[in-house]
Design goal:
Length: 204
């Protein structure tokens, strides 16, 4: 036994009324939620864009640091070479001051001072060598960090939707409005269809 015309009409009317309730609830809740989500998305996009800019600036700074470290290591190596050369010269002078004149060594006290200075110059050269090596290691670390920061900046920039403000913000309010309009059309159609089915048939 099939459903009667009047019962089908009532079902359509009830379905239409429920549709109106759903549209009204969606308008009250959905639009506000969509507005909040759009604001959050805009804020998140702005934060990501700022993070991308900061990361890019950090990558550029590391690139500049690499150049400075390279120059510093060159200077340290040059200073170490000069200190080592000075040590050799001072050692030669100390040897020259140790000469004996008729069995006496009148310049021997000076020789001791030159020897001490030569040892200090040699220690300075070793210290500068260590500084140069440390600068080289630091430069190697910096050389690895800078490209990683550049890649991270590119990823953040892509995640933020590019440089245009709001480019990554989805139009949630428009989507909710279109969805509510579609539901409203269904509700109106169901209500009108139900009312037409509930009308008594006219005798032909």
């Amino acid at each position: 036994m099939g459903i009667s015309r009047r019962a089908a009409g009532w079902l359509l009317v009830i379905y239409g009324l429920l549709g109106f309730v759903l549209v009204a609830s969606g308008a009250l809740v959905g639009l506000d939620a969509a507005d909040r989500l759009e604001r959050l998305a805009t804020d998140a996009n702005a934060a990501i864009t700022s993070a991308a800019a900061a990361t890019d600036a950090a990558a550029e700074s590391f690139a500049n640091v690499d150049a400075s470290l390279a120059q510093s290591r060159t200077s340290a190596d040059a200073a170490a070479a000069l200190a080592r050369e000075a040590s050799g010269t001072l050692t030669a002078l100390a040897t020259a001051m140790s000469l004996s004149i008729f069995g006496a060594q009148p310049l021997l006290p000076l020789a001791a001072e030159f020897t001490t200075s030569a040892e200090q110059a040699a220690e300075l050269a070793e210290t500068l060598d260590g500084v140069g090596a440390s600068l080289g290691d630091t430069r190697a670390d910096v050389a690895r960090i800078a490209p990683q920061l550049e890649r991270l900046s590119d990823k953040l920039d892509a995640l933020g939707g590019g440089s245009e403000p709001g480019a990554g913000t989805p139009p949630l309010r428009m989507f909710v409005i279109v969805l509510l309009a579609w539901l409203l059309m269904q509700a109106v159609g169901s209500l009108l269809g139900g009312l037409m089915l509930m009308r008594p048939r006219t005798a032909s």
